[in-house]
Design goal:
Layout: E1 3-6, H1 12-21, E2 25-30, E3 39-40, H2 42-50, E4 57-62, H3 67-77, E5 81-84, H4 90-99, E6 103-109, H5 113-119, E7 125-129, H6 145-154, E8 159-161, H7 170-177, E9 181-184, E10 189-191, E11 194-195, H8 197-218
Length: 229
């Protein structure tokens, strides 16, 4: 089984489309210092999440400069999960996690797998993304999935795969990486900041089907277990 998050939602219409598609989580990007058509204010993110139904996990995606700013953002929006870009170390993540009620996800660059290993014990999950020069994700570019699969295999923490995913390639990504979850923003948009509802549906369906197949392939065949005396 693989979980699916649709990120960068900016209005309730798109949130409802995410819900109808059967996604596990929805993300809003707020208070980031980079140009993106998906940015909303912290009050807008809080209002948007208030409209989310039960069992759809709300995720605040933000890029604070300090531990204090991260705590303030999570407190103001009250999401289920706070997903943090930035150069936080393990001690920073522990301080944030201790101060907020949300689960904490650390975003790490796919090109720096050692950072994933360094912070994994301090967070609830690690998200591996294609990070741009500005330190933000949302580049729309894929990365070396085989390298990320090695990260998945060597970490106890859940690993979320992001970066250039689309309805057309998400099944291959799931089969290659075997992540805990996949995350998409621009890959399901018709224009920046506006979701293509059919693409959202197809992404969730393709990811879920690939995850189910991967789970099935890991199950031992009936009668294949060794019997010991």
């Amino acid at each position: 089984m693989v979980r699916v998050k649709i990120c960068g939602v900016t209005d309730e219409s798109d949130l409802r489309a995410v819900e109808r598609a059967g996604a596990d989580a929805v993300g809003a990007i707020a208070d980031v210092p980079v140009e993106t058509p998906r940015d909303v204010s912290l009050p807008e993110a809080r209002e948007l999440f208030a409209a989310a139904p039960p069992f759809l996990t709300t995720t605040l995606v933000t890029m604070p400069e300090t531990v204090e700013a991260a705590i303030e953002a999570a407190t103001r929006v009250a999401p289920d999960v706070v997903q943090l870009h930035g150069a936080f170390d393990a001690a920073d993540f522990r301080a944030i996690g201790a101060a907020v009620t949300a689960d904490v996800v650390a975003v790490v660059d796919a090109a720096a797998p050692d950072r994933a290993r360094a912070v994994a014990d301090a967070v609830d999950a690690v998200l591996v993304d294609s990070i741009g020069d500005d330190g933000a994700g949302g580049t729309g570019e894929t990365h070396d999935w085989d390298a990320t699969a090695e990260v998945v295999a060597t970490l106890d923490a859940p690993v979320i795969l992001a970066g250039g995913l689309t309805p057309a390639n998400v099944a291959e990504a799931v089969e290659t990486v075997r992540p805990f979850a996949v995350d998409v923003a621009s890959g399901v948009e018709r224009v920046g900041g506006t979701k293509d509802h059919e693409a959202v549906r197809a992404f969730v369906a393709n990811a879920s089907a690939a995850g189910a197949e991967a789970t099935e392939s890991e199950r031992p065949l009936a009668g294949s277990e060794e019997v010991s005396s």
